[in-house]
Amino acid sequence: MEPGLGAERPRPAAGEVARIFADQTGPRAERLRARPGEGRGVARPRYRRSACSCERTRSYRHADRQPTGRRRLARARAWPAEGGWRRRRNARRLGAGARFRRGGSVRRREGRRWLWLHQCRGVAERAGGAVSGFSRREVCLGLAATGFLSPAGAAAAPYDAVVRRSGGTHSSLGAALSSAPPGEAPYRILLGAGRWEEKLTIARPNVALIGEDRRRTILTSAIASGHAKPAGGTYGTFGSATLTAEAPGFSARTLTIENGFDYVANLRSRAIADAQAVALAFGFGADRMRIENVELLGHQDTFYLRGGRASVRNCLIAGGVDFIFGGAAALFEGCEIRSRLRPGEPLQGYVAAPSTPREQPYGLVFANCRLTREAGVPPASVWLGRPWRAGGNLGLRGAAAYLDCWMDAHIHPEGWTWMGYKGPGGYAMRFEPGDARFFEYQSPGPGARRNRARSQLSMAEARAHSSLLGDWKP
């Protein structure tokens, strides 16, 4: 048994233990706190180094896990000898010739080394080679010589297509989508930084669109519902979308998707009667859609979710009128929902306009989101939502819920309002919020209220709403 790791020795006094700690920790250690009682010594500093200054011997995450009594004294007595008990333990694990370098504990360094070699082995085997019996240096030199460790090779390896102005596999996103092989295998596209003016429809399943930077990778168009199509007619609301996904399994992350139609200028000129301009639209064939760390920018009808299930996380969605709408079952988590200014309008707008089928239990659910506003949006001028009965379809009964969402003062005290539609006989009718399924649960902020017009859920009901995606775990 090694000295200091359990051998019976006379116990030093508490003052001697304190002196040993002070000698080994140096001036950067925290002040030691003396503890009364024989065998307890003093508390350890929160962070210290051993005699080998290159090795960290105590992680801040484990600062509260301090051994007591005899083990603490044994460890304290072991510090002066040969760099400390931890260094000797690591030396036994790795062999007598173990070398200690910067970069954390031996276990973490060995884990990183194993992961690096494992990744290199995978790259080499895909290239038709093998790395068995080779050292790390030999593997690195070999992969560098073949180009697999070059920046271009590293960027291209995880993606099926790379869209850049120069140096990529394609020069436009449309070309990358056109070259996707048929079938349902995942197809990953890296979209480089820049402003990409394209209007696209994705009809292939399991397409993943990854931007290089959330702010600098921008996919945009400027088409509104009332704009004329080249083949005749107008685009309509769904057809105005910058990006449309009509197949299941689509995902997007780390980019901006916007509809750049000048809505504010059209408010003054009224050049186009139908000013709906969609940034992102999901069709009826869409399902299991994932949007993460994306900015969706527009004014009226920014995000259109017709059907299926969608998971939206850590996104910014900005608009003015009904800018999150449709009949899908969608869960918005940790998003910022920003209301934009409509100059000269006393009523600034509506956040959600669900058109949920009557047989579908849940619709648009916002959990732990923030409802914010642009500068100039007055207080009590924006409604949480209104029920949309698309085409006068009586089988639609909108559903929306806000769970623990912070609300700024621009939210109207009554929360929800009505929406008009044409009934079966062509008569104008009103769909009242009391006839829809609108709820809230423990939402804080200056715009949150507790009144008769804003129905509150119980904890069990809120938990059921948050599990609306069913067996799909995005």
Report a brief summary of the structure.
With 474 residues, the protein is α/β, with parallel strands linked by helices.
Question: Mean pLDDT score, rounded?
Answer: 79
Q: What Rg do the Cα atoms give? A: 31 Å
Describe the global form. Answer: globular
Largest sheet: 16 strands, parallel
Content-based structural category: alpha/beta
Contiguous helical run count: 10
N- to C-terminal separation?
52 Å
Tell me the number of structural domains: 3
CATH topology descriptor of the largest domain: Pectate Lyase C-like
Helicity, as a percent range: 10-25%
CATH class placement of the largest domain:
Mainly Beta
Low-confidence stretches: 1-9, 20-66, 96-118, 121-132, 145-157
Q: What percent of residues are in strands?
A: 15-25%
Please give the CATH architecture of the largest domain: 3 Solenoid
CATH superfamily of the largest domain: Single-stranded right-handed beta-helix, Pectin lyase-like
The total strand number stands at 25
